[in-house]
Amino acid sequence: MPKLILTHDGAVIKEFVLDEERLTIGRKPSNKIHIDDPTVSGEHAAILMLQNAYVEDLNSTNGTSLNGKPVTKRQLNHGDLIKIGRHEFKFVDDSVNEFERTVMIAPQTAKKDTTEVPKTYQVSIISGPKSGEIISLSKPYTTLGSPGGQVAVIAKRGSKFYLMPMSGTTNAKPPVLNNSAIGVKSELLTSGDVIEVSGTQLEFQEQP
């Protein structure tokens, strides 16, 4: 199910499942997504769930931007960043990243106990002032970086982990994964990947 992840200064605040045909965002409490922000209009924007998902600006005072560009109405794609006032939403469509297939089990093997202990992961800080520290990835979202600057989020979806950029400021550089800057889309992480955020390097690894 598509959803919006609300962030402020790079920190994940809340997520909203897009299970209605029309969902409004604004400062008035009557909005489905209420934002207490003086730079946001009473009814600022709407998310339309038609054949595809769209963001529409509702003639707001300060406008709505999509991936850094002002928009009036635009189709949403997985990983898009919507800026409304001082808040940012990331549009996430899990179906885009779900490539797992259902495996048909033969009758003779279906009776066997194939339960596997789920793997657990962590990030180890390998450079910077906190070098040597380990961060467990037990929460749905783990924020990395400096609020107001370069920020990234590691999102846990089932047994997989994804690196998502969350720009703390307009001029913040994107995080780096294995020496390459990532774009607006989430990147699937594998053990041994090296992430660089705010000048600090971290290694994504399976917990021993």
Strand and helix map with partners:
Elements: E1 3-8, E2 11-17, E3 22-26, E4 33-34, E5 45-49, E6 53-57, E7 64-66, E8 69-71, E9 73-75, E10 81-84, E11 87-92, H1 94-97, H2 107-110, E12 121-125, E13 134-136, E14 141-145, E15 151-157, E16 160-165, E17 176-177, E18 180-181, E19 187-188, E20 194-197, E21 200-206
Parallel strand pairs: 3-4
Antiparallel strand pairs: 1-2, 1-11, 3-5, 5-6, 6-9, 7-8, 7-10, 10-11, 12-13, 12-21, 14-15, 15-16, 16-19, 17-18, 17-20, 20-21
Structure report:
This protein has 208 residues and is mostly beta strands. Helix content is 4%, strand content 44%. The two termini are 33 Å apart.
Question: How would you summarize what this structure contains?
Answer:
It contains two helices and 21 strands. With about 210 residues, it is mostly beta strands. The strands form four sheets. It has a six-stranded antiparallel sheet with strand order 2-1-11-10-7-8, with no helix packed on it. A six-stranded antiparallel sheet has the order 13-12-21-20-17-18, with no helix packed on it. Strands 4-3-5-6-9 form a five-stranded mixed sheet, with no helix packed on it.
